[in-house]
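note to self — DONT lose this again. spent like an hour looking for the file last time. sequence + predicted structure for the chain T wanted, 374 res
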Amino acid sequence: MSKDLSRRRFIKVGGTAAVVVGGAALLAACGDNPTPAPAATTAAASATTAAASATTAAAAAGATTAAASATTVASTGALIPVKTAFASTTMNFLPWFVAIDKDIFKKNGMDVSTQFVAAGSTIVRSLASGDSMFIATAMEEVVIANSQGADVVLVSAINDQTPYTLWSLPEIKTIKDLGGGKKVGIYANASSAEIQMRYALEQNGLKPMTDTIILPTGGNAERLASVVSKQTVATLLSPPTDLKAEAQGLNRLAYMKDIIKKYNHEVVATQGKLVRDNPNLVKSFLKAQSEAILWLKDKANRDEAIKIGMKWTKATQDEAAKSYDFLLPMFPDTGALDVDAFNFALDALVKNNYVDKTYKKEQVLKLDLVPGAK
């Protein structure tokens, strides 16, 4: 993306103001997020532990307040105010953008406001503080926070495949060419970008951090700039930034969905206490999300969906159209999270010592709230 996202931006939709969350991103996700400072990257594990403790301490009060508010307004027939946050201004979050702009949330009884919040511990903390009741972000940071005691859970997936493509300098022709100590860029440690980059390298006989050096270089725009300036030779990019790489003459080495068949790239998380105290609100939210996905998949809505994508991501019409066509099959109709894909990512987190091997996925997965769940 061409715009600078080093500062959080304020968005007001549906008549409810969203409060911008303070703090710095300490972990990672997958979008156009600010470049993490070196100290933040090296201190990711300890910072996440502190963030998880803070989340646990605040979660009970935040979820209780949210549930009480929802119950009160529901009894009067008024729209329930629901604050949300998303982790990057990419087309990956198009279902939420559509649900807001097409009043699908309102049709399901909710007045939803949203905001961009930096990925990692920052967006997870927004659940505990009450600044967000739902967040759309990468799975990894939610699992890490939950494994360290935070009362945050996964309730849905927005994508069941990875939208990343692997781009390189023109002289790099294959993934195997990334060996020999060459440097590649990811968002940050413990991110979906790291997990996917490591897997792509390993599948091609390269040992991460030995044959190929993996460096945190920031969000999509920063990662692209790092390759163009030859600080790194390759990186992973999401739509529509991948199209900018193509325009600048970079070489597409692979579609990551061809290497990793299923991946819960963006997920929806909420507070565990909200699930326990007000499951119907969570179900209503996920029902609206599913309706937005089905609206997107109606080809009669393609032109309008592209315009919505342009509005939220500042993409050109051509970029938004190509991104829409590429991403559409990746949006699961009901928002159901793919358990096999979850297991793949969890195994990678354990393998790389981000999550303890004794961790149980049942702590974080709440799979019975999406439409049609048994």
